Amino acid sequence: MIPLSARAGKRVWHFRFTHGVAASLFAAALGSYVLFPDYLALITQLLVLIVFALSYDLLQGHAGIVSLGHAAFFGLGAYTAAILARAGITDPLAGLGAAAAVSAAVALVLTPIIVRGTDFTRLLVTLGVASLIYEAANRMRAFTGGADGMPDFEVAPVFGLFPFDFNGKTAFFYAFTVFVLVYAFLWRVTTSPFGLAMRGIRENVRRMPAIGAPVRRHLSVAYMLSGAIAGIAGAVLAQTSRFASLDMLGFDRSAEIMMIATFGGTGHMAGVTIGAALFGLLKDTLSNVSPKYWQLGLGMVLMLAVFFGRDGIGGLIDRLQNLGRRP
Fold first, then answer.
1. Is-contact 48 175, C-beta < 8 A?
2. What gap in Å lies between CA 11 and CA 122, rounded to an integer?
3. What are the CA-CA distances from residue 131 to residues 75, 85, 126, 127 (Å)?
4. Strand partners, 162
5. How many other C-beta atoms lie within 10 A of the C-beta of residue 53?
6. How far is C-alpha 221 from the chain's CA centre?
7. CA–CA separation, 261 vs 267, rounded Å?
8. Contact, 236 vs 174, CB < 8 A?
């Protein structure tokens, strides 16, 4: 039996290690602003991709819900912010709030199907819903611009003080702040009793009702939170790039975020964060090297990562944590 002092020391070490990794991620993001000032647009897109990946990781990595249509919430958030801005509501924070509300509302409508289905039915339902939303956005050209997208809207300065400049400095700090807040919020959620219950549901959904856990309610809340955060990520991308398009709703983006979660290690926030950043950098590098065959190189790298990297980047971080822990 492990002594109480040893268990307490283990918890303290885990707490310090987890916060140290998070602080390192935040420091690396800020350091990129100093080291690569000419690539702020790319770094901003990477931060948005990280927030989107964290939203999906809450869904699959913690609640055990797989989805092939998570980009629907991302695109809904982007179009919500863009439509509001074109209608005259240009405050970026108002756009974020509206994007989160709309995406959460759509997720709420879908929860009766999601929480009752199996993994296979969830894949089909989420893929079908995403396809319907994609086609609806394509048909509603008066609101979405159809295949041409929505480039004709302006975004007001953040807090009325910091305008989105051509160099991308405000956009970087805007996306960085959203990333830090989302990371902190999700860490608090996943380490709370609610987060532990979600892990139990993911591991054994049939046993959790026996201990009094409201499985359907927990899954509904997790799905709504995941959809809301994905909507926030889409809104940030639309506001910083001043563009919203059907690509943000496409199947490719949903499949991409599933690959990122697997590459980073589902259920591991730091691993998913690093995995999303590396995936975005790799995609940008390969597309510049070979605009025609970059997907082939990306697929080979991901296959090698899955074959040789057990549990993704998150598993590697956990093994490093176990090596550094004192007996």
1. yes
2. 36
3. 12, 25, 9, 6
4. 158
5. 30
6. 16
7. 8
8. yes
**Roughly how many angstroms between the first and final C-alpha of the chain, as a whole number?**
15
pLDDT digits (tens, 9 = 90+) for 135-166: 999 998 888 888 888 887 889 999 888 888 88
* Helix 193-203, helix 169-190: angle, nearest 10: 70
Question: What does the domain layout of the chain look like in residue ranges?
Answer: 22-324
Token digits of residue 172: 């970087």
Distance, CA of 200 to CA of 222 (rounded, Å): 13
> pLDDT of 275-321, one tens digit each?
899 899 988 888 888 777 777 877 787 777 777 766 778 777 777 77
Cα angle: 57, vertex 61, 64; to 5 degrees: 120
From CA 17, how far away is CA 325, in angstroms rounded?
9
202 closest CA partner among 66, 56, 53, 68: 66
Task: Tell me, letter by letter, the H, E, C secondary structure of the chain.
Answer: CCCHHHHHHHHHHHHHHHHHHHHHHHHHHHHHHHHCHHHHHHHHHHHHHHHHHHHHHHHHHHCCCCCCCCHHHHHHHHHHHHHHHHCCCCCHHHHHHHHHHHHHHHHHHHHHHHCCCCHHHHHHHHHHHHHHHHHHHHHCHHHHCHHHCECCCCCCCECCCECCCCCCHHHHHHHHHHHHHHHHHHHHHHCCHHHHHHHHHHHCCCCHHHHCCCHHHHHHHHHHHHHHHHHHHHHHHHHHHCCECHHHHCHHHHHHHHHHHHHHCCCCHHHHHHHHHHHHHHHHHHHHHCCCCHHHHHHHHHHHHHHHCCCHHHHHHHHHHHHHCCC
pLDDT tens by residue, 167-219: 889 999 999 999 999 999 999 999 888 888 888 888 777 777 767 777 788 88
> Does residue 240 contact residue 34 with C-beta atoms inside 8 Å?
no
User: What burial class does residue 13 get, using C-beta atoms within 10 Å of its C-beta: 0-12 exposed, 13-18 middle, 19+ buried?
Assistant: middle
CATH number of 22-324: 1.10.3470
